[in-house]
Amino acid sequence: MFRVGVLEAGPNWVHDRMLEALAEGFKAKGWEKRVEFPKDARSIGGWNPDGRASTPYLAAALMARNDLDCVIGMGTEAALALLANNNGRTPIVAMTLSDPVASGVVKSEKDSGVANLTTCIIPGQWLNMLRLFHSVVRFKKLGVMYQDTKPGRTYANVEDARDVAREKGVPLLEYGRLEGAADAKQCLKGLDVLISQGMDAFYVPDVPCFDWTVNDPRPLFEHLARHKVATFARTGLPLVQLGALMGSCSFDMRPLGDFHVAQMIAIFQGRPPRDLSMLMKDDLGMALNLETARAIGRDFSADVLVSADVIVRSTIDLENVRKWY
């Protein structure tokens, strides 16, 4: 029996789906009775200041244990906290990271840089999303919003947005004054600053005010639609169903779960984490919301409609989205 600990930077629906995908992956490999996730070894920080402050202590407690064969770090801040308290022996598998290289979790796409660390890297994932966004809406001024910390900038893919803005020859409007839990009031203030600067497209970041599992992002999308701002949801289909114009639709966690299961089984069988490949193929899907398109006065071309993986004809009620996922 192999025992696995889990550290989460804060509550997040993606983490729950990832753990479900891992369970399915181990079952498919015939390992469901060989891997255990002890309840007392799952630690969850928080997105408010107190919660963020607790993450390093939770990481230290997990890395001090001698009864764990592996520790999973869910989210950038969790992975960084585990590395800061690394005991050098317990394998660390970092999952659901916005950008493992840019955030400093790993050294490069081919080398984690730490003997007991591995993760998954999808080369160009967020860069391709932003390029896709531009190819569809041809924005003239792209807006991004983030907390001005290293993890905060990676949650909003700021460096990728800067690269695409330079590549397409358009201004990038940045609002980097989000704080703590980034509630709806903070986000609305940031959006209004960007709108006043002429923003016509907004890259929806992974921040709490857009987390549909605990908050209602629909008023923010409605506010943006009133100002004819096109939106791209980096965290996928649920936000498109709730009012984002478009986004990725790679909601199925099974391929990623299978990737990490293969890594963990290799580790349990004696492979050093640093020796494992971290590269996974980009399988970017696209979802479109036709109701939002009408509201902001945009028409999707036939080519875009044909290439879409999911087409949402009208915005869906929040409770139904929560039930489905």
Notable features of this structure?
325 residues, alpha/beta, Rossmann fold, seven-stranded mixed beta sheet, 13 helices, 40% helix
Helix percent reads: 40-55%
What strand order characterises the main sheet?
8-7-9-10-11-12-13
CATH topology term of the largest domain: Rossmann fold
Biggest beta sheet summary: 7 strands, mixed
Tell me, what is the CATH class of the largest domain? Alpha Beta
User: What is the residue-mean pLDDT, rounded to a whole number?
Assistant: 93
By DSSP, the count of extended strands is 13
What structural class do the secondary elements suggest?
Answer: alpha/beta
Shape: globular
Alpha carbon gap, first and last residue? 31 Å
Going by CATH, the architecture of the largest domain would be: 3-Layer(aba) Sandwich
Q: Mind sketching the topology for me?
A:
Blueprint: E1 2-8, H1 13-28, E2 35-36, E3 42-44, H2 49-63, E4 70-74, H3 76-84, E5 92-95, E6 117-118, H4 125-137, E7 142-145, H5 150-155, H6 158-168, E8 172-175, H7 184-196, E9 201-204, H8 218-226, E10 230-233, H9 237-241, E11 246-248, H10 254-268, E12 286-289, H11 290-295, H12 302-307, E13 310-312, H13 318-324
Helix pairs in contact: 1-10, 2-3, 4-6
